[in-house]
Design goal:
- The structure is a single chain.
- This protein is of the alpha/beta class and 817 residues long.
- The protein contains 31 helices and 20 strands.
- Helix 12 links the parallel strand 6 (271-278) and strand 7.
- Helix 23 packs across helix 26 (619-631).
- It is globular.
Length: 817
């Protein structure tokens, strides 16, 4: 869609070289399929500067020079049933899988609103509805659900949910329900200001040939998908589409796909953005062994998309599908939009790829010379021309969230006047049932955790029997529809720093700096990506030992993640080392500490500390130190030890205090509810220990939802069998493998308790959930190492200053420049 006029440009005479072709494109020539194919094979050193210049020209014409946009969203997987059989997809389930997962065929309105309202509280303005194509045409279970709830089709239900979301929250829907007919597009237009469907590729071979990725998937017929894109244009709908790079298509296919999208945009002016998405292989799919999209080819596809589509098209890449160090290369390739990014929900289509934190994305964008601005589901040009592009029913909700430029205003969505602001019954003709007790209370907690008072939360903590089953089911749904289905584990080893002795090992549990180096090397050899170090040094050891220990570990194993030092240990370094808290944290950064444990506290109550752990750091000092750690750039864990002298009210106060800290710092990566060894004091007399744990995990998930994303199950305290039960009560993570190692295993505080990766995989498989190895910061560990591509196609690892473009990146010693 053109947003302004420019002086006519005269293209140079047509030549045969890439330089000539690029000069003509820069001057306004629109490459045909043959020329596009040629460009896709060109060297990045010549492609990227032209693509970046065209992007900048378009942003200037749009009136937002130097701005890259994103949409703050929640991802709502309305159903994971689908009639297609794409060979790379992990999003879909069968009815049998849903039954084993205890997962409904479709999210209910209550479940949708639970997720959307949490996003609303976090300032999200977009609800992305993603689902499988026409599941009722393959699965009788889907047809039965729709019939039971009074809907003619899945699209009919999408219309209902979209209207409900805007009515109840003021948020705007971006509908992504797959192939749509003209009447369905017309039905969605009054409830969804933008829609989308990836073209993916024009390749008929991938659709028609047995064994190819789209064979057996009727909705992946490229001609059908191109017709939907055209029909959306005829209906006046701002539309998102794009290509998928690396699924077996040829370079010619990519060229044809990009030109086809340009032609549709030319006909109707409705294509608001084109996504260029890189294929990432996923386990449990037919393509699990296929290589990820080649980075050089991906960057070329991004840059050529800009050259083909021109300066006025928005070109989007998903930031979570690339390593953070690759984002600068994508900016250099001419992108101007990061797409939807969620502060709450997982990318349910790519669950192994967490969204970047929005603050981190803004910082990365700034590093590469651009400002990150929030937009709405419809891009600014379409918002400003609402009379043409936005249905009358949605113009007021869109205006309420837009600023004068058509970007997102700095407001929180609110329900329009007259909305019910309460859960809506699943059947359209039914009535809201009376409050059934704990389940309804739990559903309120999932939707708006801060709306409950302490008495409500205490009631939930005391749930037993069927009410406890209801509580854990709601908590597990909250987990499912926010962080997703994967069960995660980090490969790690403990090293108890209180055993450090400068003079070397003299007793069990002790070690010297040389031993620490050997322990680190051994941990890496076993597959560990993290070493966890905590424990106060003895008073007669130099406090500089805290830093020397980290240097020894990092020197021996430079790539290992050091998760080190509780607030108590930090205070010891600060006080005895004469550094102060700020100085101690800076010294830890410099030594190589990556994240810090948030342990060293039982319950944030001085009364409980005095009774149970008087040697722990005072509560105010713990809060001061963990807050300072977060504000200095460290992320941390958080914990609550329960089952001793604390009351239910003190547990709730502890969780609320963690939320308050998180609101200020965003530093907690996870929460771990840990039964205190030897405590075993139930809140409910006679309640089985496993039910005590179920209630605690479920309440933790609900009260911290929208604040601390991950709830870790302490398998070392509850055992593997109970851990499996708690993973169905709202938990999503198993912590670490806790390898003993072959070098001084007694220096780890939980020696003798290991969770090998195969055992964790079996546990996840028993729950019908995917298993992922993660890093300490919840990224996948099997991501391809990032690299850049220089002249001649040579790959080199991305250096720390990855803001430079490939031709500026120095080659390693001995490598050709």
């Amino acid at each position: 869609m053109s947003t302004g006029s420019a002086a006519p440009r005269v293209a140079p005479a047509r030549g045969t070289s890439i330089d000539d072709l690029l000069a003509r494109v820069r001057a306004g020539h629109r490459p045909d399929v043959d020329e596009t194919e040629t460009l896709l094979g060109a060297d990045l050193d010549v492609l990227l500067p032209v693509a970046a210049a065209l992007r900048d020209e378009g942003l200037d014409r749009a009136g937002r020079a130097g701005v890259i946009t994103y949409s703050r969203k929640v991802f709502v997987p309305l159903t994971t049933l689908c009639r297609d059989r794409c060979h790379y997809c992990i999003f879909v389930d069968t009815p049998g899988q849903l039954a084993l997962l205890r997962k409904p065929a479709y999210m209910t309105p209550e479940q949708v609103l639970t997720v959307v309202r949490q996003g609303q509280a976090l300032g999200c303005k977009e609800a992305l509805l993603t689902l499988g194509d026409r599941p009722e045409e393959r699965w009788p279970e889907a047809r039965a659900w729709l019939d039971e709830h009074g809907f003619a089709s899945t699209i009919d239900y999408v219309v209902h949910i979209a209207r409900l979301i805007t009515t109840e929250t003021g948020m705007l829907v971006h509908a992504n329900p797959g192939v749509m007919h003209p009447d369905e597009l017309a039905a969605l237009r009054p409830v969804s200001p933008s829609m989308g469907m990836m073209l993916e590729t024009t390749s008929r071979r991938l659709f028609e040939e047995p064994g190819q990725v789209h064979f057996g998937s009727p909705d992946k017929d490229p001609d059908l998908r191109l017709k939907v894109i055209d029909d959306a244009g005829a209906a006046g709908i701002p539309f998102t589409t794009g290509i998928l790079v690396g699924i077996g298509e040829t370079v010619r296919d990519r060229a044809e796909s990009l030109v086809a999208l340009r032609e549709s945009a030319d006909r109707h002016g409705h294509v608001q953005e084109v996504i260029v998405q890189n294929f990432r292989a996923k386990p449990r799919t037919a393509m699990q062994g296929a290589p990820d999209a080649d980075m050089r080819e991906y960057l070329a596809a991004v840059a050529v998309a800009r050259l083909v589509l021109g300066p006025d098209m928005r070109v989007q890449v998903p930031p979570n599908l690339s390593d953070p160090r690759e984002l600068g290369l994508l900016v250099a390739a001419g992108i101007d939009d990061w797409g939807g990014v969620s502060p709450l929900t997982a990318d349910h289509v790519n669950p192994e790829r967490p969204w970047p934190h929005i603050d981190d994305l803004a910082a990365s964008t700034a590093t590469h010379g651009y400002t990150l601005r929030e937009r709405l589901t419809a891009h600014p040009e379409f918002v400003r021309d609402a009379e043409t592009w936005i249905d009358p029913a949605l113009r007021a909700p869109v205006r309420a969230l837009a600023d004068a430029e058509g970007l997102a205003a700095d407001v929180t969505p609110t329900a329009p006047m007259g909305s019910s602001a309460r859960p809506v019954p699943t059947p359209r003709t039914g009535a809201v049932s009376p409050d059934p007790g704990v389940r309804r209370l739990a559903e309120r907690a999932a939707s708006a955790p801060l709306a409950l008072d302490d008495a409500d939360w205490t009631r939930l903590l005391h749930a037993t029997g069927g009410e406890l089953d209801d509580l854990t089911a709601v908590a597990d749904d909250a987990r499912r529809y926010t962080v997703g289905e994967p069960i995660t584990l980090v490969q790690n080893r403990n090293l108890t720093s209180s055993g450090l002795r400068r003079g070397g090992r003299a007793a069990p549990g002790e070690f010297g700096l040389d031993d620490a180096a050997a322990i680190a090397v051994d941990a890496v050899d076993l597959g560990a990506t993290e070493i966890c170090i905590q424990g106060a040094l003895p008073g007669d050891e130099d406090p500089a030992g805290y830093l020397d220990l980290v240097r020894a570990v990092k020197g021996a194993a430079p790539g290992i993640h050091v998760h080190a030092y509780r607030p108590l240990d930090v205070r010891d370094l600060a006080d005895r080392g004469g550094l102060g808290i700020g100085g101690a944290l800076a010294a830890m950064h410099a030594a190589g500490v990556d994240t810090v444990p948030g342990t060293g506290v039982k319950v944030l109550s001085e009364r409980v500390r005095g009774l149970v752990a008087p040697g722990d750091l005072e509560i105010d000092a713990w809060i001061e130190t963990i807050t300072a750690a977060h504000l200095s750039g460290f992320r941390s864990t958080s914990v609550l030890f329960y089952g001793h002298a604390e009351t239910a009210e003190e547990r709730i106060a502890h969780l609320r205090r963690l939320r308050e800290i998180q609101d200020r710092t965003r530093g907690f990566a996870e929460f771990v509810p840990i039964p205190l060894p030897g405590g075993d004091v139930p809140l409910v007399a006679g309640r089985a220990p496993v039910d005590e744990h179920r209630a605690m995990v479920a309440v933790s998930r609900l009260l911290l939802s929208g604040s601390i994303a991950h709830v870790q199950i302490p398998w070392t305290r509850v055992g593997r069998d109970t851990a499996a039960v708690l993973l169905r009560s709202g938990g999503d993570d198993l912590g670490g493998t806790l390898y003993d190692g072959r070098v001084l295993p007694d220096t780890g505080i939980e020696q003798g308790l290991e969770l090998p990766v195969p055992a964790a995989e079996r546990l996840a498989r028993s729950l019908m959930r995917p298993f992922r190895l993660r890093t300490t910061d919840y990224r996948v560990t099997d991501a391809s190492a990032p690299y850049v591509v220089t002249s001649g196609g040579t790959r080199f690892p991305v250096p720390a200053d990855a803001s430079r473009t490939p031709d500026e990146t120095p080659a390693p010693d001995g490598a050709p420049a």
